[in-house]
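User: I'll paste a sequence; please echo it back and then give the predicted structure.

Assistant: Echoing your sequence first, then the prediction.
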Amino acid sequence: MTETSTARAKGPIVFLDYDQVELDRCYDQANWAPNAPIVHERTDVNAARARQALGEPERLAYGPTEIEKLDLFRCGKPNAPTMIYVHGGAWRTGSSTRCHAPAELFVNAGINFIALDFINVDEAGGSLFPMIDQVRRAVVWVYRNAASFGADPEKLYVFGHSSGAHLTGNILTTDWPAKYDAPFTILKGGMVTSGMYELAPVRLSARSKYVNFTDEMVEELSSIRHIDRLRCPIVVSYGDRESPEFQRQNRDFAVAVEKAGKPVKLQVARGYNHFEIAETLASPYGLLGRAALELIGAGAKG
């Protein structure tokens, strides 16, 4: 479904039935979430409340550069699972600090919570490859250092929202043995929410003004093309008030995973837009919070 203004003549088709204006609108969430500033403010307030309840997280380096750090909230339980959060922000903004709100849910459930920081696409000169490499190396660091903070390296899970879900899709479809000398089974489960898994249409949108898309980038970093490397159950979610393209991207990814014979659960958040859905991860009764606890619970039993 597209929203073509009656005051504007439709231009040449660029992708599916979208002209350039419509496609650009679909990849700009501001058009579909007018309350975004309010949600962002709420996110910061709730993150601060979580830190007040739990104390400040440990700030640990997973790599050599200043940005390659993570925030760790320990649950204090021996051999506990760990959830790793990969933030969104259109590949341009966002930080680990803004992802702290769900930490209280996980810590209280006996699960360590980690939020990652990493380079943004502007700092990387328009390339997505440095971001992908950093978040992948962060996962490997957590795997290899889990015992140092009382975690079980065999119980690692990852969550990503928006552009963070794009990064997470690539984390989940990494050739770990070949590229990072790590086992294919490094992750026991993953959650991707409101993300992009095929970059071809994104390349055609206004996002190409700040991302220097190349054929190699589209091929290598479209996780829907590498489902053969997926080795764990995943949950795919989106809100029904997001743009049509973000809804389609998530539906198509879930369908492709299912067709490949791999375990996947698709969830639609009724009445939620792109930013509101992320808030549900902080509640055990929220769509994402409940799904995360169920995923980790199933993984722990398995």
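Residues 36-54 form the longest helix (19 residues). The radius of gyration is 18 Å.
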